[in-house]
Amino acid sequence: MTALTLSTAAASGLRADAIVVGVAKGAKGPVVAAGAESVDKAYDGKLASVLDTLGATGAEGEVTKLPAPSGFKAPLVLAVGLGAVPEKDSGYDAEALRRAAGAAARALAGSKKAAFALPVEDAAGTGAIAEGALLGAYSFDAYKAGDDTAAKGRGAKDSKGPKAPLAEVALLGAKPRDKAHKAAAERAVALAEELNRARDLINTPPNDLNPEAFAAVATAAAKEHGVKIQVLDEKALAKGGYGGILGVGVGSEAPPRLVKLSYSAGKAKKHLAFVGKGITYDSGGISLKPAGHNETMKCDMAGAAAVFAAVITAARLGLDVNVTGWLALAENMPSGSATRPGDVLRMYSGKTVEVLNTDAEGRLVLADAITKASEDKPDAIVDVATLTGAMMVALGGRTFGIMANDDAFRTSLHEIAEEVGEPSWPMPLPEHLRKGMDSPTADIANMGERMGGGLVAGLFLKEFVGEGISWAHLDIAGPAYNEAAPFGYTPKGGTGSAVRTLVRLAERTAAGDLG
Ligand code: BES
Ligand code: MN
Ligand code: ZN
């Protein structure tokens, strides 16, 4: 991943490929943001008017490149838009900094080193810029032109292969000897490394990432970071009676897995359980998805990837909270051995489920994992899942829905998501939708009314949560995978949605901020 350093060097003397400065949108044109004073001075105080001449406005995400002033060792200045000038004294909010740093880092793909001279007011600013830059520099090229010519040409302008991500980021204005700044930078590095690994997993094609392969990646990472791991294979799942996970995985040549990751912090008072939907490919099963609906379904394990990343990050940060991660991994395929619409599964909880639609598979694997997670009696369970197209219809491609059996917990998660820059919205679990899942044969069906399909799925999951445990469900079907153009620090493809919300929840729980 991109390397990060905090530097006290002057912009003029830095050996870098580019100096990044911030430009905001003022009432009368672009305004150069704090942090770039020395750069502006080298342009004789005319940077704003030069940018104006070049057509720059300071709009969010706008990138303007100009030759560096004479005397600078770096050849290029890159001005990145921060959006509106903040109201007096309030400073730029963290998300504006993250997005600007991300857009700049992405625009500098192919470069070796860039110095970021963005407005840093405090350690939080350092953390936000670091996070934005490290996440924005991400690209997934593992499957692109791996031949020698392309490899040699990586970074070169005339190369046919993809440009290598920006290799090194130096943050100017951050205080390398200040404890809080250092900690913020270290947090950003750990978080971005794990979040980017989650993106890699999501982007990895399903012929290379089946449940067994995912479990192997989790095993290696857990060993590296002192996290306990337990992997239940198909035999153990059968022995344990995990009818939901088995029922989904039974149509595939690649058998399912249930992975438990346990991070224990010495004397922590609280215990969180995270549960992730890990369908490594969702064809729909016998209720096969039509063409046009299955091309991106390698992303259906994004919930499990988020949970995995969050647990490893909590361990790397040494948070004072116990965190258990459950990855419910299966491939949903049609075959002669696949579950049929009409089959009844006996779940790990003992409940029976009539499978009316094999494409409603996420709730089946999650139900078993949620029941199992409940046995440890955690203080709260959060599941993360690309669960329903309906949630995407309701909230669009950038916002996840939050459902819960506890209004205060739902509100907390919504606030935490907002704080870390993840758009979300609280959704209800209306009881009247439950009867739509009544089955003549079994205790419940895996489908109900079409209208409110995201809420129906939430109501299904709720039935598997242990008595008295606070539970929330994040339906990330929209934001998990970005099919549109990249923006801010969000790339095309796997985004790492919900990782930062889970990590912040763990941090806040460790700090005793939550009941
Ligand atoms: N993985 C899909 C949901 C999904 C759709 C995620 C689009 C990301 C993008 C899920 O397993 C699914 O197929 N859900 C069905 C449920 C229905 C059959 C009750 C859906 O939403 O159509
Ligand atoms: Mn499905
Ligand atoms: Zn699915």
TrEMBL record:
Localisation: Cytoplasm
UniProt-listed Enzyme Commission number(s): 3.4.11.1, 3.4.11.10
Reported cofactor(s): Mn(2+)
SUPFAM superfamilies: Macro domain-like, Zn-dependent exopeptidases
InterPro entries to which the protein is assigned, alphabetical: Leucine_aapep/pepB, Macro_dom-like, Peptidase_M17_C, Peptidase_M17_leu_NH2_pept, Peptidase_M17_N
Domain Cytosol aminopeptidase, chain residue ranges per copy: 357-364
Cofactor comment: Binds 2 manganese ions per subunit.
Active site: K289, R363
Enzyme class (EC, first level): hydrolase
Positions that bind Mn(2+) 2: K277, D282, D300, E361
Domain of life the protein comes from: Bacteria
Primary location recorded for the protein, binned into one broad class: cytoplasm
Pfam families referenced in this protein's UniProt entry, alphabetically: Peptidase_M17 (PF00883), Peptidase_M17_N (PF02789)
Keywords: Aminopeptidase, Cytoplasm, Hydrolase, Manganese, Metal-binding, Protease
Binding residues annotated for Mn(2+) 1, in chain numbering: D282, D359, E361
Annotated catalysed reactions: Release of an N-terminal amino acid, Xaa-|-Yaa-, in which Xaa is preferably Leu, but may be other amino acids including Pro although not Arg or Lys, and Yaa may be Pro. Amino acid amides and methyl esters are also readily hydrolyzed, but rates on arylamides are exceedingly low; Release of an N-terminal amino acid, preferentially leucine, but not glutamic or aspartic acids
GO BP annotation list: proteolysis
Metal-binding keyword on record: yes
Gene Ontology molecular function: manganese ion binding; metalloaminopeptidase activity
Record's GO cellular component terms: cytoplasm
Function: Presumably involved in the processing and regular turnover of intracellular proteins. Catalyzes the removal of unsubstituted N-terminal amino acids from various peptides.
NCBIfam families, sorted: PRK00913.1-2
Entry similarity comment: Belongs to the peptidase M17 family.
Name of the protein this chain belongs to: Probable cytosol aminopeptidase
Lineage: Bacteria, Bacillati, Actinomycetota, Actinomycetes, Kitasatosporales
